[in-house]
Amino acid sequence: MACQENMFFIGLCISSVNFGLSSNDLFTTMPETMNAVSDTCVQLPCAFQIPDGHNISFSSARNVYGIWLKGKTDSNILFNSSNTGNSLGKITGNLSEKNCTTVFFNVTTSYTNKYYFRIDTNGQYRATDIEKSVTITVIDSPEQPNMTVLGDIKEGTPLSLNCFAVAPCPGHPPKLKWTLPTKSTPVNKLQENPDRTKSVLSTVTFIPSYLHNEKNITCTAVYPVGMSNKTAEHTRTLHVLFSPKNTSASISPAVPGSVGSCVNLTCSSTANPPVTNYTWFRISGGKTTQVASRRTYTLNVTVGDGGQYYCEARNDQGVEKSQEVKLPGQRNPEVWWIVGGTLVLVLLLIVIVFFGWRRKSKIPNGLERTVNPPETAPAREKPAEPVENLPEEIHYGEIDFSRQRPKKTQAAAQDRERDLGKESEYSEVKVTRGRSQDQEPLVNELYAQVNKTGAL
Ligand SMILES: *[C@@H]1O[C@H](CO)[C@@H](O)[C@H](O)[C@H]1NC(C)=O
Ligand SMILES: *[C@@H]1O[C@H](CO)[C@@H](O)[C@H](O)[C@H]1NC(C)=O
Ligand SMILES: *[C@@H]1O[C@H](CO)[C@@H](O)[C@H](O)[C@H]1NC(C)=O
Ligand SMILES: *[C@@H]1O[C@H](CO)[C@@H](O)[C@H](O)[C@H]1NC(C)=O
Ligand SMILES: *[C@@H]1O[C@H](CO)[C@@H](O)[C@H](O)[C@H]1NC(C)=O
Ligand SMILES: *[C@@H]1O[C@H](CO)[C@@H](O)[C@H](O)[C@H]1NC(C)=O
Ligand SMILES: *[C@@H]1O[C@H](CO)[C@@H](O)[C@H](O)[C@H]1NC(C)=O
Ligand SMILES: *[C@@H]1O[C@H](CO)[C@@H](O)[C@H](O)[C@H]1NC(C)=O
Ligand SMILES: *[C@@H]1O[C@H](CO)[C@@H](O)[C@H](O)[C@H]1NC(C)=O
Ligand SMILES: *[C@@H]1O[C@H](CO)[C@@H](O)[C@H](O)[C@H]1NC(C)=O
């Protein structure tokens, strides 16, 4: 077969293998096999050569007929090109130019066979190439188109897809249609294959995105068959390489427990190839620190783990950061008790000190106003001292009591009343005693003072 490709090899074949064999007076070039779709045509590309010694007699022949044989002998003729109006097929090539291209019309599955080519120049020159045959296979459904991908499929990198469908009947070639995850305009052309058969090639180019990963793409070949169509398709799944996408960080449980409980920080991402590397970072006090390099970062919560956390997902295509998630600051429950207790104690102290101060600050006021006059008095005996307190107490009681009553509880008010009563009583006793000790004018004066101040 290779021998027939050019003259050098033809010479080689004759000299080495076929020289002297009368059966090799013809060398044909045609595909070894051809697939055809039933009820359509099949065009068989064919060419032949006549050995040099016989070329003159061939060229001088007036009529050249081409005959297709089912088998190597003349006994089973498919058709003889001399029979014009033959419905089985037609030699469309110019036999004088050694072109034996033949179209078989409307083939059926019964055509499936091995065929040999024979030349007949009206008896002057006859030869069959018994070394070369073509096997025609007629099938009811067309062959699946062939889809090829040029290069790696990476997001953002233009991708070219080829779909290739045989066109055994080039007069009615198949139409190729694409089912793609994105819009793209295909470029179709009828092309000749190395064995001179024809095929339709369709090329689409688009830029894949990560959303196209795992999506199916289909190329459908539609063969016109009589009044209808026959289809064949090829589907493949796109595997798009892409850097991590939809990277997110989550906390479990959503509301972290107290110190000593476990919190899972989990990073999720999609990538192709899958994420190889997850890294956790913590932002605290304006500083970012790497805390883990696993998908799930499990924290045994300690005081001071609070802060913003985010993760990074990486594969060989790139890297992506998640949003930040907040892990609330934690306090030791014991700390809460201590802080709470201290606060209550401090409050209590403040209250005590405040009331103590208030009580004391009122006393000097009363003294200044009411006790000064008696102090000027010459008589100053020890038993008389309580007398000095008397007006003060009454004065304080009167003013304070009237002011404070609405703020105090009933019980407190009564207590206060009772206390005041006691003091008044006590003072009364003192006063009585003071009176008996010949200090009547002073006491009277004191009473006057008290009444005056009380009225004020
Ligand atoms: C083909 O037809 C031609 C013309 O009728 C005839 O001369 C030739 O012998 C035929 N060839 C065969 C193999 O029948
Ligand atoms: C042979 O003939 C066919 C049909 O006419 C044509 O398409 C083809 O190009 C020819 N081959 C050569 C080598 O000229
Ligand atoms: C076939 O080729 C020969 C030689 O080149 C030419 O004379 C003849 O007209 C051609 N026949 C057809 C039908 O084209
Ligand atoms: C092809 O042959 C089938 C039966 O052999 C026939 O029914 C059909 O009409 C034919 N089609 C054409 C286009 O000749
Ligand atoms: C599809 O193409 C591949 C590689 O190019 C090849 O091996 C295979 O035979 C082809 N299949 C068809 C049906 O053309
Ligand atoms: C993609 O095609 C495969 C077979 O090629 C099929 O199993 C799968 O269900 C298809 N997927 C979709 C999303 O159509
Ligand atoms: C056959 O396919 C062609 C192109 O795809 C379309 O235009 C035509 O309507 C189809 N015919 C039938 C009968 O389905
Ligand atoms: C944390 O993750 C571990 C396994 O990764 C699991 O056993 C545990 O239950 C998770 N804890 C929480 C609180 O989600
Ligand atoms: C957390 O750590 C503390 C002390 O390191 C330990 O006592 C406690 O059992 C740990 N908790 C968990 C859930 O691992
Ligand atoms: C993961 O990423 C970190 C930071 O970029 C790097 O230090 C580490 O080596 C990586 N690990 C793997 C297994 O690639």
Q: Please, could you describe this protein's structure?
A:
The termini are far apart. Residues 1-22, 366-409, 420-444, 446-450 and 452-456 have low confidence and may be disordered. A hairpin with a 5-residue loop joins strand 15 (187-192) and strand 16 (198-206). The longest helix is centred in the last third of the chain and has 44 residues, at 333-376. The protein has 456 residues and is of the alpha+beta class. Helix 3 (333-376) crosses helix 4 (385-404) and helix 4 runs parallel beside helix 6. It folds into five domains: 17-139, Immunoglobulin-like; 146-237, Sandwich (Immunoglobulin-like); 249-327, Immunoglobulin-like; 331-362; 364-456, no CATH class. It has six helices and 26 strands. The strands form seven sheets. Strands 2, 5, 6, 9, 10 and 11 form a six-stranded mixed beta sheet that branches. Strands 21, 22, 24, 25 and 26 form a five-stranded antiparallel beta sheet that branches. The chain has a four-stranded antiparallel beta sheet with strand order 12-13-16-15, with no helix packed on it. Bound molecules: 2-acetamido-2-deoxy-beta-D-glucopyranose (NAG) (10 copies). Residues 39, 106, 108, 226 line the site of one 2-acetamido-2-deoxy-beta-D-glucopyranose.
